[in-house]
Amino acid sequence: MVAVSKPRGTRDFTPDEMERRRAVEKKMRQVFESYGYREIATPTMEHMELFTMKSGEGIIDETYSFHDKSGRMLALRPELTAPTMRFYMEKMRMSPKPLKVYYFGNCFRYDRPQKGRYREFWQMGCELIGTDKPEAIAELIATAYHVLKGTGLKDVKLRVGDLELLRSSIKKLGVESPEIMRLIDKSDYEGIEKMIEGKEGADEFMEFLNCRDFNSLGKFFDENDVERIGSVLEWLSAFGVPYVLDTSIARGLDYYRGIVFEIDAPSLGAEKQLCGGGEYSLLPILGGDDTPTSGFALGFDRIIIALEKEGYEFPLPPEIVYIHPIGDEMRKEAVSLATELRGKGIKVEMDLMRRSMQKSLQYADRIGAKVAIIMGPDEWAKGMVTLKNMETGEQKEVEREEISKFL
Ligand code: HAM
C-alpha cells in the first residue's frame, strides 16, 4: 500500500487511458470549431461569490471552497458558465456578436462518488452570447448533439424543454418554486405528487409534466405561450437533429430560463446524463446588460464510459520505433539517429538501460514497437543498419539514409 492515496472521488489516468481521452477530446474540439466556436480558458479557482450569486443551493453545498492565506474565500470551479460570464464582463464585452466560445477543463463538486460521478471531472462546453433567435438556440442544441455523435457514440437521446412553461405551470399551482424544481430535476414523482396533493390543478400539472408531444401542449397553454419552443423544435428538424419534447426538464442550476435541454446515454443507468444546457441569465447580476446567453456542458468522463460500453474501438496511437545500439561505442550514434528520426515526426525510443540485445528487444516488443533498428558497429561503418520487423521477426539490412522509407 502507498502511504498517501488520492482524494476520494478523484482519479489517476494511465498513458493508455490518456491516449483514449485525448483522441476523443480532439474529435470533440473539431466539431465545436466546425460551428465557429473558439477556445478560452479560465482559472481553476474563482471567488466563491461568483458561484453563490446564482448557481443555486445545490451547487453551493457541493462546492469546494476555502480561505486563502489573505482570508479571501475562493472556490474550485464546479462548472464553467459563471467563470465564462465573468471573463466576458472583464474582457470580451466588445467582441462581435454572436460570440461563440468553448472550453475544456476540470471541475470540482463535493458529490457522493460513484461510477460516472466524481469529485474532479472534466467538462467540455460552450457559451453562445448575443443572440436568442430560435435558429441560434437550435444551432446550439445541434452543436451538442453533433459533438456527441462525432465521438462515435451511437445511442444518445436528446430531450428539449421550456422553463417558462414549467415555471408558469408551477405558479398556477401556487407552490414554493425552488423545492418543487429540485424534485422535478431529480424526477422524484412521488415527492412531487405529495407536495401538490389536494391543490387545484394538481392532476393537470402531472399531466403537463408527462406531456411528450408538442401538439398536446395546446391543452395547457395558449398558442402564444408555446410559439417559441415550437419554433426552436422546427429549426432543430432543419438541422437534422432528432429530439423528444420533455416538459419536465428543470435543470439543477438557478440561472436557467427559456429553452433548456439534456442529452442522455441510456446505457449508463443512474448517471446517464451526458449533457445539459440551455438559455440562462447571469450577466445582469454581474453588472452587465441582459444580452442573451445560452450554452451547454458535456460530461467528458461519462462520454468515455459510454463509448467503452458501446464497444467503441478507440484509435491506436502512432507506432513507436525502437533503436538498439550494439556495444557502448554505438550509443552516441544511436542518439543522433534517434534525434534525426524524431525530427521527421517519427516516435522513437532507444535503449536507455544498456540491456543485452535479447532483453532490449523483449522490451521493444512489450511497448508495442513494430520495428526495431539494430545498430552494429561494422554495419554502421558501411552506412547500414538492420531493421527487424517485430511481428514477423524478419530482418533486413538497409542504408541509413533509407531508414525512414521503411518506417
Ligand atoms: P451540469 O448539468 O451541472 O451543467 O453539468 C453538465 C454535465 O457535466 C452533466 O450533464 C454531466 O454529464 C457532467 N457532470 C456533472 N457533474 C458531474 C460529476 N460529479 N461527475 C462527472 N460528470 C459530471 C453545467 O455545469 C452548466 N454549466 C452547463 C451550461 C453551460 N449551461 C449553460 N452553459
Keywords, separated by commas or semicolons:
alpha+beta, elongated, 14 helices, 22% strand, 8-stranded mixed β-sheet
Identify the quaternary structure here.
single chain
Number of domains: 2
Strands side by side in the biggest sheet: 1-5-6-11-10-9-7-8
CATH class of the largest domain: Alpha Beta
Radius of gyration: 28 Å
Shape field:
elongated
Q: In whole angstroms, how far apart are the ends?
A: 42 Å
Bound molecules: histidyl-adenosine monophosphate
What share of residues is helical? 25-40%
CATH level 4 superfamily of the largest domain: Bira Bifunctional Protein, Domain 2
Q: Helix count, per DSSP? A: 14
Coarse structural class: alpha+beta
Let me know the average pLDDT. Answer: 95
CATH architecture of the largest domain: 2-Layer Sandwich
Could you explain how this protein is built, in words?
With 407 residues, the chain is of the alpha+beta class. It has two domains: 15-309, Bira Bifunctional Protein, Domain 2 (BirA Bifunctional Protein, domain 2), CATH 3.30.930; 320-406, Anticodon-binding domain (Rossmann fold), CATH 3.40.50.800. Helices cover 37% and strands 22% of the residues. It has helices at 15-34, 49-52, 57-62, 81-92, 134-150, 163-173, 177-185, 189-196, 202-209, 223-238, 300-309, 331-343, 357-366, 377-381; strands at residues 38-39, 45-47, 65-67, 73-76, 99-108, 120-129, 157-162, 244-245, 256-264, 273-280, 293-299, 320-325, 347-350, 371-375, 384-389, 395-399. An eight-stranded mixed sheet has the order 1-5-6-11-10-9-7-8. The radius of gyration is 28 Å and the shape is elongated. It starts with 14 loop residues before the first helix and ends in an 8-residue tail after the last strand. The model has no long low-confidence stretch (mean pLDDT 95). The structure holds histidyl-adenosine monophosphate. The site of histidyl-adenosine monophosphate (HAM) has 24 residues, from strand 6, strand 10, strand 11 and helix 11.
